[in-house]
Amino acid sequence: MCYINLEQGSGETGTRTLFYSVRFCQINITQIDLVIFDMMRESLKNITVYSLSLLYIGVGIKHFTDMDFFLVIVPPYIPYPELMVYISGLFEIVLGALLIPRKTRKYGALGLLALLIAVFPANIYLFTSEIAQNTFGISRQDALIRLPFQVPLILLAYWHSKAETPKSFDVLCFVLFVPTIIYFVTLG
Q1: CA–CA distance, 8 with 150 (Å, rounded to integer)
Q2: Range of the domain at 145
Q3: How many structural domains comprise the chain?
């Protein structure tokens, strides 16, 4: 209960009573804020996990429907590039689907973390290959901008692999999620 108690009279006693009463009220509000934040935290984390799941499943399907889109960024030293595009697409679909149920979320997230690291050379190749840049219709600078966006995806995958995380890490992931998802959705 929050209340302000002013005793009769004035001076230090009245001031002290007011101070302690307001302080008591702030403690209660802070406790309420923490409960609200915890409720929002779960909802926001669910929004991110379902959004990323759809993103991975969609991109995975695109590996099969528009293989040439991905084939151009497979580095030349990777053997069987067509097969690698299909395999990475299949993993994106399966791991994206595994994010949805809570029972399999940890495995889907850890698998995606490994997949994101495994396909990172394709992003480096996009940055170094003028042919790949021309095919994508992007500049070298655009390809450079794309490189750091893999880091938030890796952090988000790690975050979704954990049932409990510090609130500060949750806030970091929320902040990184918004520009990352906007960036990848606008790629086309």
Answers
A1: 64
A2: 41-185
A3: 1
